[in-house]
Amino acid sequence: MLGIRLDAPSAVLLDAVDGLIDVLLQAPHVPKEFAAHGGNPTVRASMQTVRQHGERRQAHWRRLSGIFKSEVAEVNGAQLAQDWNLASKAWWPKRWFLQRAVIGRLVPYTSNQRRPTVEEMPPLLDTLRHLNDEDHELKAVEAHCVELLGCEYKGPNTDWATVQRYEQWGRLFEEAVERVASVSDESIAAAMTESLRKLVGEQRSLLLPTGTASGRLTAFRDAWHAFRSQIAGVAEHSGAGKALSGEPTVAGLPSRVRTIVGGWVSSRRYLKLWCRWRQLRGLALTGGQETVVSALEDERISADQFSDYAEYSYQNWWLKAVVDCEPTLRNFANADHDRKILEFRQTDERFQKLTEQYIVAVLAGKVPRRQSREKPDKEMALVLKELAKQRAHLPVRQLVQRIPNLLPKLKPCLLMSPLSVAQYLDAAHSNFDVVVFDEASQIPVWDAVGAIARGKQLIVVGDPKQLPPTNFFNRADDAEDDVSGNEEDALVPDLESILDECLGAGLPTLRLEWHYRSRHESLITFSNHRYYDSRLITFPSPMTNDLAVKLILVDGLYDRGATRTNRAEADAIVKEIVAHFSDESRCKLTMGVVTFNQPQQRLIEMLRDEELRKHPELEQRIAKHGSERLFVKNLENVQGDERDLILFSVTYGKDAAGKMAMNFGPINQDGGQRRLNVAITRARTGVMIFSSIRPDDIDLSKTRSTGVSDLKNYLEFAITGPRALVEQAIPTGLEPDSPLEIEILRALRGKGWTVHPQVGCSGYRIDMAIVHPHQQGRYLLGIECDGATYHSLPTARDRDRLRQFVLEGLGWTLHRVWSTDWWNDPEREIEKLEQSINKRLATDSSQRSGYIE
Q1: pTM score, two decimals?
Q2: Among 152, 151, 164, which residue's Cα sits nearest to residue 47?
Q3: For the segment 496-511, what is each residue's pLDDT rounded down to a tens digit?
């Protein structure tokens, strides 16, 4: 009847039809023509204009009706006003006569024949003039008003309040039609609108209380109201809430309700369980578990996840309560905390420098200052006398004995070997406050005792995993090469060092675990794992493919019977030396060569000198920095040295007959692994191992030497180390350290960044690192959180200054995420993190462009 399809209506459509029916049932009370066209905004606008003129006309007449008859509306108010103005401008007494004449023209229209006063005339004439104007406007639209309102239009006496109600009906009719059309099929909207216009116009009789359409529309409206009320009641009693009616805009409301209720009927056997659920639900709500219940009902979690979700909700509530009660956490601000860290770093650095300056100033203040004309004391006089001599100086031992009070003031710290202590300091010399042994693993006990006796306190610094003192004057008789007269490779017994003695005596030990030398973690990884039980704290380099340890295989032979050298390895090393110092980009890096015996050392030195004579410019470049630029040493005398690059010559290998003896010189003897450890930890940036043998060529069944076993493992590490390190870093094999790191990792990977967690090989690892998108072998940015790694360091200096100082020195750029900030606003922290990443990427790109230019 209305042209509206209701086969699968939504609640919104039914409400719209309900509103339309209310408007349609009011149509018989609206003039026919107006009802037919009242939905047109233009028609309503024109009628509104007419109504406003009529209302103003009635307002003007109310001001005149108490004084004049209705016929006064026919008087030309504009002409009277003009005449009154002329009269008012005339001179007196003419003015009086003219004004009286104008007033006399209005007297016949007054209701009580009372003449208006001069003061009343101007407002009366103004009102009369406006009344004439409104009558003129109404006269101009009279035909249009009669057409729309019919007998309802009575000119100036029309009931304009009723007309306004007609306008309101027209607006409601238009809105109701548009509302139905907006939620109906667009293809029938135009036809429906035309059908409704005819219904309220030509067919309006159907909408009368006795009409057929009125009864059907009323019945539909009552049915919808009853259905809606029943849905609300069922939803309230069942606890289904909005789940029963569903979304108001979704079609098929009746069938959906019928299906749900039918499902309830068919599932009535579960009623007992449902009642139990409602009981438990009420208890949960009473216990403050609204979020858990709503998550379960909304199917955001399953029943088997209920316990974990409830635990999470409780922890979440507990954490908020704790944070609110703890001012430090509640008021935490990363900007303020970062500022404090920066201020601490700057203050600590200033304090360190100030301490150095203070010590220098204190010691300098103790040096005697000779005043003019003041006679020096006896000890100073002796020193001045010795300084003035050209020859025949007192022996140092005697000089030291004769200035016991002056010497500590001039030289508060003496740097001497144990032999020098015995040679220059008498046993009766006054005790030193502190005696410090450096490289104590190489100092025999009997050499150290004399120095220890001269001190009040003792500090022994050394590494028990490095070279012990060796007795080169007591060679063993059972050396493998003694048969061939190879004394160079004969086993040399090691002696006990003062370090071993102190450790055996159980003296208090302080372990220094931070390792700074290696700029690539792979340089220390083998030793850390093999000799230090992975206790060293090493710092990862910002490289994903750490290739700092390389094995270069050489097709060489070991000349066992004659020179005990490997010429091919020596040639390869000399070639690498020349190539290195010929390259402008690499020549600034220092280099050291380590051999496994002295003959190979001498051979490399000889070949190097011959080659440098051919290239005098390289010889000058190397000589400019002396031995600091390049050295060639063997295992026994390399301890204490360090260089950027270290080249190894394994030397030993198969001989001309293809025989491979399991003899590697000092490596074979007891403690040989300590010599290997010293050698492989000398490099800062890289190690190159030149070898004529592969790890598989070393048969451990033919030797029990730990040093040989470690050599085999180190050669294997040089081959597989890069792959092993990649397995550790991509990822390391360890999961993120905390849920916070998991969230950050997930967020960054979701934005397309490649992220590696737990970067590093030792006990200390960077929480995660962003792989450079354009240089896959490098890390762009390191990310640290205030988790277990941060809190494991005992002092603020270690946490917030020294560690970052070391990492930045290795080339890292770091960004810290504070857990408190992440808890409060994770989106903002991710934005800041992305800004740091993009800023670092832009900086790196500009630097690379600068290098290219």
Answers
A1: 0.54
A2: 164
A3: 888 888 888 888 888 8
